[in-house]
Amino acid sequence: MSLRTQLRKILPSISVTEQEALDAGDVWLEGSIYRGKPDFDALRAVPEAKLNSEEQAFLDGPVQELMAMIDDSVIQNEKHLPEHILEFLKKERFFSLIIPKEYGGREFSPYANSTIVGTIATKSSAVAVTVMVPNSLGPGELLMHYGTKEQQAHYLPRLANGTDIPCFALTSPEAGSDAGGIPDQGIVTKGQYNGEEVLGLEVTWDKRYITLAPIATVLGLAFKVLDPEGLLGGKESLGITCALIPKSHPGVELGNRHDPMGIRFYNGTTRGEKVFIPMDFIIGGQQNIGRGWQMLVSCLGAGRGISLPALGVSTSQVALKSASEYAAVREQFGLAIGQFEGIQEKLADIAGKTYLQEAMRVLTTEGLGMGLKPSVVTAIAKYHMTETGRDVLDSAMDILAGKAIQNGPQNTLASGYVAQPIAITVEGANILTRNLMIFGQGVMRCHPYLQSMVEAIHSEEADADKTFNKILRKTVGYSVANSLRAFKLGLLPFTAGSNSSLPEVQAYEKAAQRLSAKLAVYADFSLLVLGGKLKQAEMLSARLGDVMSYLYAAMASIKYYEQKVAVTDREAAAPYFHYATRYALVEAEQALHKFLDNFPAPGTRKFMRVLTMQFGHSMPRINDDMVRELATAAQLDTAFKAQLTHLVKPQAGDGHDINEQAYKAKIACLDLLGKVKRALKKREIKAGVRFYETLDNALIAKVINETEYAQLIDYNRKREKAIRVDEFDFDLNLLDEAGSLNDVKSAVNQ
């Protein structure tokens, strides 16, 4: 019995949906990471993402106008998104960011799409989700890639100008993560349409969690097609299919709402019982029956690589701006709280991870802007950027403390804090994404021979043994080369290469090369020892996926520092860069240790450890000096910090504006505050009960002059406003019938 035949009995076959997922998308930078040779030349060759003049004008115009219209505290206490905002989104074609200009769309780049969604999300998660869904996985993108000319000509202009509002229904109560197991089905049959008998489908479905469903005018629907009578002349089970059905079509039910954490975007259900649709409703026509899953997974990049990561980044930028400004302005025990090391530890982590988030956002959208559909990279972006957003936001909540837990117009964190679990849950729950997708897809897509070998193992061709043996020889050679390289870099770490012209980058690039070489060896031995069982060893494979993810993050950090940071800003950016890159590399190394510590074969585990010289921690850890340096940098008003929080656009009178005014006022009078504090210390003046009384005493004692007094009084007024929270002049339980707070004003802002 040949080795191929033996393996065929052992290894599980790949399902149709798994194969379609593997075939969809492109292999990009993650391929070189998996193979042990991170391609920094390819990284540096990626075209730098920039907004063109039209995209910048849209951000400066309609987006800014929209931001001024949004009062999220009002939205969250209403039942619906305000009608005037919804109409504005339609009028300014916010739903057409990905639609080609020939159909009336804006046809913006992935980077611009991400920037627009991220900017809106800093003000309102509900509005951001409403904008992102039509520009993500759904009818628009599916029609662009797979629709017939007639479907494109009819629907795309209507989607672009807001005449039609789309939703896409995939998730069923019986099938969420297992989308291939959806029970919804369409039976091939004949029926009446427009007064004629035509061939079509009798579709029954029950879907939930469908964003925009309550207001949608056109429903994208995924279901399985069966042909029990053989009307199409082939097999009975034809596979997952996507159709586009007008809401007005008889039998379509759209309307019941869910309440996703009180975030007021439209989300709900759709159902239908034996609804007859003609073949023309299938996206791409009858020929696309059974291609639905392939179509869906190939279009997942927008949601996973653009929209949801943008929500994570916006959360981080809001957290950094809010926490750093509050830490600089808020004083306790006579000191700004940003000078206390407990606060500094949290603040530095926020700042470093926000830098990493922005670097990953930029690199991922740059890849998508090249026309690539990197399925593994977008899964990495979705998982790590939404999780990091949650992590960063938790730290900011700790710093702002009581100010962060009181709802009202001044609270800059509440909306994101409540909404962040939504980004983590949708488009593939994060547990699924990390444990099954990143390395699960990566091992098949990134290994140069594995997918071909599996195909050869299960092949029915006469020369399958010959083909298998040829691939096996190449695989063995590849694994031996990986082992030799990892051993060399483990024994002689200084031999790792770097092409960077910046000395501060070179050490990190070399570290990434060494860690990647170890990853390649561990992946090879996992396949050799565990084989098909690796699919069930989710914790092990997730750790290897973490190594890939954090090395991708480190590469993003390096590219951002080299290309996006102006030479004049390098000194200000350095603390962010070092913290972020070191964090990513330390996490990658930690994941390697956890993998080895838990590998089930003791002999192989020891051999891998010796082969790769993985005995301790080679990456320098983040130390207290780095924390202090970055926490201090994060509280400075620098051009680089403004660049890193560029998604946040303060509007007159909102929480960001109130905080920023107090922060900038303090930065402008630091010398004067120092003068007053020195006078207090020398007992030249007495402290008042209120700070303005202290300033009165300083003026009388001529410690400060009239001009300086006016500046300090202005700062104190802004400071007092910034450290206060919203308070209301009524019983919060006494809302009107609509549950509206429209007529209620914050006492602080009157």
From TrEMBL:
Q: Which residues form a coiled coil?
A: none
Occurrences of domain Acyl-CoA dehydrogenase/oxidase N-terminal (ranges): 67-162
Report which superkingdom the organism of origin falls in.
Bacteria
Entry keyword annotation includes Flavoprotein? yes
For this UniProt record, the keywords arranged alphabetically read as follows: FAD, Flavoprotein, Oxidoreductase
Does the keyword DNA damage belong to this entry?
Answer: no
Database matches in Pfam families: ACDH_C, Acyl-CoA_dh_1, Acyl-CoA_dh_M, Acyl-CoA_dh_N
Locate the Acyl-CoA dehydrogenase C-terminal bacterial-type domain: which residues? 444-728
Identify a single GO molecular function assigned to this protein.
long-chain fatty acyl-CoA dehydrogenase activity
According to the UniProt entry, what is the EC number of this protein?
1.3.8.7, 1.3.8.8
Q: Tell me where in this chain the Acyl-CoA oxidase/dehydrogenase middle domain is found.
A: 167-267
Q: Which PANTHER family match?
A: ACYL-COENZYME A DEHYDROGENASE, MEDIUM-CHAIN SPECIFIC ACYL-COA DEHYDROGENASE, MITOCHONDRIAL-RELATED
| Similarity section | Belongs to the acyl-CoA dehydrogenase family.
> What is the name of this protein?
Acyl-coenzyme A dehydrogenase
Biological classification of the source: Bacteria, Pseudomonadati, Pseudomonadota, Gammaproteobacteria, Alteromonadales
